[in-house]
Amino acid sequence: MDRFKETKKAGFLGIIGNLFLLIIKGTVGFIFKSQSMIADSFNSAGDIFASLMTFIGNRIASEPQDTSHNFGHGKAEYIFSMFIALSMIVVSFKLLLDSIFVLFYGSNLVFSWLLVIVCIITIIVKLFLYLYTSKLAKKYNNILLEANKKDHFNDCIVTFFTLVSVLFTLVNIYWFDSIVGIGISIWICFTGIKIFTESYNVLMDISIDEKTKEIILDIAHNYKDIQKVDEISSTPVGYQYLVVLTIYIDGNMSTFESHNLADQLENDVTSLEKVYKAIVHVNPI
């Protein structure tokens, strides 16, 4: 499927791009003692892990259904997105402690225009990755791509403030470098918690959203022979949902007619983007 091929490509590009940024940010950050740049390089290391998890998770999720996994392996996307979230949270705490330490005990940052150049390069690379991944995430509704998209966008914001902190040293304001490092760590943690929560909800079988439920009800009510629709039940199957609903029809309708009606409704509901499969139970009135 194009969905899995494009996600694989996005994961590979993320690994290459973030590896390049890790090397240049880490090298320049440690040479010139910039806490915000060092924090940014750790963020890139986390991004490499995130892209790797996207690559692996997508590979597993792309496996078709089999006798052991009747609804496929789609939930792998959410398991691996949780790994991404946990790695972001762990990295954020390490960066927070380091930045607080530097804030209280002083910074040894040495200004260099090389720091500025690295920031600009990072913003350009990350902006490209964000726009590319954002397009795919919207098209394929993939939480792994969504996690990567947010990560790339966060990096653009983070590196912008890193650039500001570096420029502040031109007027002998060094404490802002540590403040930016603290801000980066909090931002990473917040994003990680948000991704973790989204993945957790799916793995705990959160039901389909209310808007899609309304669409399903509208489809059912378009059938004049359906007199009543019971509450809709659903469970996630990867990025889509298995939907079960019960309809009530005239008890005098023949078995053939009622089953034909149920089949038509199942096909209509299954055609929705968020629905993996619909199952319709028929009860007579």
Structure description:
The chain is α+β, with helices and mostly antiparallel strands. The chain has helices at 2-31, 35-61, 76-105, 113-140, 143-168, 175-203, 210-221, 255-270, and strands at 226-229, 233-237, 240-249, 275-284. It folds into 2 domains: 2-203, Up-down Bundle (Alpha-lytic protease prodomain-like), CATH 1.20.1510; 210-284, 2-Layer Sandwich (Alpha-Beta Plaits). The protein has 8 helices and 4 strands. Helix 8 (255-270) links the parallel strand 3 (240-249) and strand 4 (275-284). The model has no long low-confidence stretch (mean pLDDT 83).
Describe what is shown at a glance.
This protein is an alpha+beta fold. It has two domains: 2-203, Up-down Bundle (Alpha-lytic protease prodomain-like); 210-284, Alpha-Beta Plaits (2-Layer Sandwich), CATH 3.30.70.1350.
What would you call the shape? elongated
* Estimated radius of gyration: 25 Å
Number of β-strand runs: 4
**Separation, N- and C-terminal Cα atoms:** 43 Å
Strand content: 5-15%
Structural class: alpha+beta
Question: If helices are DSSP runs of H or I spanning 4 or more residues, what is the number of helices?
Answer: 8
